[in-house]
Structures are given as C-alpha cells and as structure tokens.
Amino acid sequence: MSLSLRRIGLVAARDFKNSITSRGFLIGLLIMPVMMVLFFVLVPRILNSHTPQITGEVAVIDATGKVTPELRHALVPAEIAARRAREATTPPAKNKAVVPAAAAGPPLPALTVAAQAPDADVQVFKTWLIQSRDARPQHLAVVVVQPDAVARRAGASAFGSYDLYTSVHLDNATEAILRDSVRAALVSARLSADGLDATAIGKVQQVFQPDSVVVAAAGEHSGSRGIAQFLPLASGILIFIGVVMGGTILMTSTVEEKSSRVIEVLLAAVSPLELMYGKLLAHLGLGLTMTAVYLFMGVYLLAQFSFAGLLDPMLIVYVLVFYIFTFLVFGSLMMTIGSMVNQMADAQAFQGPMMILLVGGYVLTPIIGAAPNSSFSVTMSFLPFINTYAMMARVASSAPPPGWQVLATLLVSCVTVAAVVWFAAKVFKIGLLMHGKPPSLGTLIKWARMA
Amino acid sequence: MTAALEIQGVRKSFGDTLAIESLDLSIPQGATYGLIGPSGAGKTTAIRMIMSILFPDRGSISVFGQGSALDAKDRIGYLPEERGSYRKMKVGAFLTYLGCLKGRTRAQAFGRADRLLGRLGLTDVTAKKCEDLSKGMLQRVQFVAAIVNEPDLLILDEPFSGLDPVSVRLLKEVITEEHQRGATIIFSTHVMAHAEELCEQIVMIHRGRKVLDEPISGLRRQYDKRRILLEPLDSGANLLALQAVPGVENVKLNDEGCELRLIAGTDPATAIRAIATVVAPARIELARIRLEDVFIRLVSETGAADASHEALRTHLQGLTQTGAIS
Question: Does position B114 have pLDDT exceeding 50, yes or no?
Fold first, then answer.
C-alpha cells in the first residue's frame, strides 16, 4: 500500500495547529527570551539596585612599615575602579560598552585601614574579628604583612607574603577586592623600595588587544573573538531547544492519543506509517518555527550591537539543516517512546537515556567550538546522534571545516535518520495498540522484527 | 458481485497466545453480519485484522476486492470497542477531520456530521469541546465519526455498550438506515438480542475459531425438540401436575405458564397431546432456539469438554440441522 501524502498532510496540519496554539508551546517559546531578559537585564539591575555598600575596617599588622600606606591608597574606591580599567584588554574607545557596565555593578566597598603596631598580637586580632553582624564598625579582616614581604631576606629568591584572617561576615567579592588591593600595595611597595616608578611600569605593561581582521579572497571581515566563541554555543542551544521542545510535545501528544484511545479511531482512517510521518512532520515544523523565532531574535540582537555583519548567512542555513536531521533522529525516538507507554511517568523513564545522548552532544559544543579541527572534533562529527551538534559547532567556529567533512556528516545523518525512522516505524506500529506494562528492550527488538 | 469482505485461512498469534487459529469468512455486499463470541474469543483481533490495524501471520483478507483494508479505508467506517476522541477538540472539527481523512471534503464532512448529529439528538454540539460532553453524548459522537464518510462497509464493535435505551434505539435506527442505503454491516456484540434484531447472518467465534456461520432466519426456524412452552387456558390450573405426564423430565413455572423439558428420545407430538389432556392450553408450542441458547451451549459445552473441532462440528450439525458450519 502506498502512503497517501494527502492523509499525511492532514495529520500534520491538525497536529501542528493543535500544538502551536497550545499553552505548553507558547510557554516554551517565551521561556527562553524571558530567561535571557531576566539573566542579562533584570537580574543585574535588581542586584545592583539592592546591593548595599560594604563598609568596615581592615586591621593591618605591617612588620615592614611600608605596605600600610600603599594599601590605604589601593583600597580607595576610585583606585579600585582605575585598577580594573587598567586590566581591561580592549582599548578605551571600544571598551565603552564594557566600562559603564562594570561601573554599573555593585558598589565598591569602603574599607578603612586600621594600622596596628608591627609587633601586635595576632591572636588578639583574631578575637577582634568575632562580632555580631550589626556591630559598627564591622571588623572585616586582619592582614599580617610578613617582614620580608617588601625586601627579600639575604640569599632568598622570593619575597615574603602576607597572612589574611577574615570575619565570617566578609563576602567573597569583597575579599577578592581586598586580596587584589594587598597585592597591588605589595608590588608598589617593592618597586618603591627598589627606586622604581610603579605608575610608569604599569603603563609599560598595558597592551590593549585589538580585534583580529580575517583576510580572505572574498574580502576582509572582523574576527571578533567574543562572537566567534559565542556562535557555536548559540547554534547548539538553538538546535537543542527546538528538538527538546518539539520532541517532548510530540511524545506527549502520542501518549495522550494512546491513553485517550483515540488512536484506534485514527488507525481506521490512516495507516500507522501515515500517522507517524504526519506527526513527525507537524512537530518538525513546530520546532522549526521555534528555531526560526529564536534565530530572528538572535539576528535582531546582533544587529542592535552592530554585530549582524559578523553572522554568515550560511550559518542560518546550517542551523536549519542540522536541526532537521537532529529532530528526525530524536523526534522519532521520542515518538517511539510515546507509542510504547500509556502514561507520561513511564515515558520519562525511557526518555532519560535518550536525553543523555541529546545533552551530551550539546555539552561538547563549546569544547568542539574551541578546537574545531582537532582529531576529537573531527571524530565527533561522524559519530551518529552527536555528529550534527559537532559539525554545527565546527561550521560556526572561527575555523570552519573543509566542505567534504560537512558532506560526510550530512551523509552519516541521512543514514542515521533512515535507521532510526525504520526502527521507530516498526515499534510505533505495534506499540500503539499495546497497553499495560511498558516493554523491555528485548520486547522492543522482537516488535521490530515482527512488524 | 465482489464480496465486501473475504477472509481465507487467517491465523494470528501474539507471542505464545493464539488469538485466531483459523478463520474463513465471506460477507457479500449489502449484508448485515453479527459477530458474536465470548470475551477473548478473537472478535476484536479479527476486526483489527479486517481493518489492517493488525496483520495476520498467515492467510489473506480482501476488502471490496482490494488486497488490504488500507487500500479501501475511505470506504470503511469503524467504531472500535475502545473508542476515544481528542478531548480538547471541538466536536465539529473532530468529525470534519475524520471525514477529511477518509476522503471527504471539509464541506461534505461537516455537512454530513451536522446532519447525523441532529439525527442522533445532538443539535448544537459542533462548537463544544469533546471533553464538555457527557459519556452518552460522546458515544453518539463517536458513532457519527464511524459513519461520517458514508461508508460502504461499516464495522461496529460493541456499539451499544454503556448507552441508555433511547440512544440504543436511535443508533439502531441509523444502523438500519445505513444498511438500507446499501452499506455492508459487521456488528460485534455480546448482547444476543441486538444481534437477533439487526443481523441477517450470525458468525460466532470461539477460541479463535469460527464455530457458527448461519443466517438468523435459519436459526429462528430451528426448534428445540426437548422444550415445550405452555400457557394454560385457566390461570388457576395445577401446572405441577404435568410432572406426572409420561416423557416429561421437569416443569419450570414462569409468568405466562410453564416450560417443560422432555426426557431424551420422547416424541414431542405425543407429549404435547398428553400435556393438553392434563391442562387445557391457551397456547402450547415447541420452544424456538434463541441465539443466546446457541451461544451458551456452544461456549459451555466446548469449555467443559474441551471438545475437539470435529466434536464441535458434529454437535453444531445436530443443533442446526443445516451443516452450515465450515
């Protein structure tokens, strides 16, 4: 019996319409942009607007007598901000978008240095740190500068350092600033002791890193490293989310059709294969819609930051092509799971191993994107179930693979899709009418051989 | 004329369980066949194979001359025993969808669905969601789904289960109309009265085998020569006195009079004359065979003795006197 494209189309149209108007899909579609807005826009603002400035005292027992004034200077908020700006690797003109963001971060702490006698008892100051959260001023830390921290002992190759004791109320961010300031104070004191100008040396050491310009036969374009690192990850997540969303809705709808017993009514009108292909097509379209929406949003965002020119249009084609292959493999498997069980709880048990494969492919994306032509990356590009992610990460990277490797990956994908759809069709045909205990792996293989 | 359904040597097993051992059946176009049998006999499996939802291990099934029901799905209407619907879908959209799947245009499917819903007392439900209907209403909608494509072959698996008497009557009327339109009807049921009322031919399946394939008219003509029904002229007559009549094994009283069972080998004509001399009858007759009796006797006797197929054939030949069993 030949398959009826008309019936496949009707099944696909109904399922697509039903799923795309469902609350689950709309929530799924909106959840990613909402999370992004929360993560990148709202959360920092909320955090910043409600983060109180940390104020308190730092006791310094300075055996050298030279570090305390330097530390007092290094802990001034303006000096902390200046130090951060000096550590930036991009030139000030292009760093505009970054500097205000850094400036808009949580307020810098106001730490007062309480200088102590060089021979002060450390044990006494450990007790000094123990106080209630509401006590004022807050005793936040004790810095004990070792005697050889500025001038090496005779015959020693290294300088001494310092010991740090902190209060339980000192947070990690403030401690990091304190450590950085002590380091700056020590370096400054050491340079001064040697008669060197710390400011001049700082300027000498500062080298801004420019964006690379990729020169190709077709012309030159910016090789923005940030975008190059981001694209493989973003492409992978687009495929991942589309497959998970479309596949999960497909599995759920199959379980529902089976448990509501409408399946036998449908099978009176269409063959199991027509039903399967129709459903697969509908949810492939559903995932494509979602991917297209996200792609559009991504391109729009890049355009907002004047990065749209960095995006190769072929990359969009690759995302769609690799999405289709990934969905056909994992969507077929998800639908098979739906046909095997009668309730979602059973489906979730079967879904676990498959999700490991799906997530595994995605997790490798940044590793492959960082070294796109390593032997590991090349091998992953030809491994079924993972190959689409791997190749997507490679084509989105700064050093795309040769064309024959892309074609080879597509060929592996075609064979994988054919094998998985063949298996899915066999199990789907039998599983649809089976009720009761979910089948074991042995039973599944038996079904595949029976059908 | 090509048979609506032709089944030859079909066998189906599920693992170690043999659902259908061997089934041969030919149903002419325009006929109404009742498929009866106890639970687990293989009726639903047989129907699912006819529908090409399941496939036989051996043998062939042709529907309207086509090698598979898959090639004739648009001409078939099917109401499965375990029927469902898309709960969130509107009734009109659900029925239109199924009609379209079976080759009708949207307008044709919606028009016929609307007309049939009205015929079954379900006006104004097309815009309601399936989940908003009562169980009885939904069952009628599901029945409409089976006939929305104006099928040439209508297969109904337990169509009346769970329906109230009024709905049963409405469905029977529509089934009769479909038959009059020319549709071939295959009707699976446990309720013998429904089969007797609607079917022209009865096929009984038991333990995966066809054990009866008989016209209902033929069955109705059969008489049980050991049972006599008596309605006395005088309602106060002593019916228990009939126990003493020669040849009478026992007497069972009922609302209308009594039922007498004769000893094996007793001539019923002689017994009737003797009975009439003891109690004046308003009505006295040999009991007709009821489908239910055939069903129970076939099932219980084959079950008790685990009779071989041959023994069963002999028994049925004796029962029906037609030798129509294959």
Answer: yes
- How high is the pLDDT of residue B308? 44
* B166 lies in the same domain as B241: no
d(CA B190, CA A336): 35
Instruction: Read off the pLDDT band of A350 (50, 70, 90).
Output: confident
Distance of residue B145 Cα from the nearest chain A Cα, in angstroms: 8
List chain A residues with CB under 8 Å of B102.
269
List, in sequence order, every beta strand (DSSP E) within B120-247: 153-157, 184-189, 201-206, 209-215, 223-232
Amino acid at A263: I
| Rg of chain A, C-alpha, whole Å | 31
Q: List, as ranges, residues 5-44 from A with C-beta within 8 Å of B.
A: 7, 10-11, 14, 18
A3-27 confidence digits (pLDDT tens): 889 999 999 999 999 989 888 888 8
The two structure tokens encoding residue A260: 């509501």
Examine the domain organization and report whether B203 and B295 are in the same domain.
no
What's the domain count of chain B?
3
Contact A270 B101 (CB under 8 A): yes
A149: three-class secondary structure by DSSP = coil
For chain B, say whether A419 makes contact (Cβ under 8 Å): no
The residue ranges of every structural domain in chain A are 5-36+216-450, 54-205
pLDDT digits over B25-60, tens only? 999 999 999 998 888 888 889 998 998 888 888 999
**Whether B110 contacts chain A with CB within 8 A:** no
Candidates A264, A270, A342: best to mutate against B (most CBs of B within 10 A) is A264
Residue B49: give its domain's CATH number. 3.40.50.300
Whether residue B52 lies inside any domain: the answer is yes
- State whether residue A17 is helix, strand or coil: helix
Look at residue B326 and tell me if it is in a domain.
no
Q: Is B32 on the interface with A (CB under 8 A)?
A: no
Determine if residue A325 is left, alpha or beta; phi over 0 gives left, psi from -120 to 50 gives alpha, anything else beta: alpha
Spatial strand order in the sheet of A139-145: A110-116, A55-62, A139-145, A162-166
pTM comes to 0.72
* SS3 of residue A214 by DSSP: strand
Distance in angstroms (rounded) separating the CA atoms of residues B73 and A263: 15
Task: Give the C-alpha distances (Å, rounded to integers) separating B148 from A62, B98, B178, B274.
Answer: 95, 8, 11, 59
| Inter-chain CB proximity A261 and B84 less than 8 Å | yes
Above 70 in pLDDT, residue A100? no
Q: Are residues B193 and B254 in the same domain?
A: no
Average pLDDT of span A54-79: 93
**Domain final position from B199, B218, B237:** B218
Mean pLDDT to the nearest integer, A84-94: 64
Average pLDDT over residues A256-282: 90
Question: What's the confidence (pLDDT) of residue A451?
Answer: 60
- Contact between A414 and A388 under an 8 Å Cβ cutoff? The reply is no
- Cis ω on the peptide bond leading into residue A232 (within 30° of 0)? no
Among the residue ranges A133-137, A295-299, B201-205, the one predicted with the least confidence is A295-299
C-alpha angle with apex B274: B270 to B278, nearest 5 degrees?
A: 165
Give the start-end residues of each E strand in B80-222. Answer: 153-157, 184-189, 201-206, 209-215
pLDDT band at A49 (very low <50, low <70, confident <90, very high): low
Which among A379, A406, A400, A266 is positioned nearest to A322, based on CA atoms? Answer: A406
* Residue A74: per-residue pLDDT: 93
Say if the ipTM goes beyond 0.85.
no
B233: tokens are 């002229």
Per the domain annotation, does B136 fall within a domain?
yes
Looking at the structure, tell me whether residues B72 and B117 fall in a common domain.
Answer: yes
In which band, very low, low, confident or very high, does the pLDDT at B278 lie, cut at 50, 70 and 90?
very high
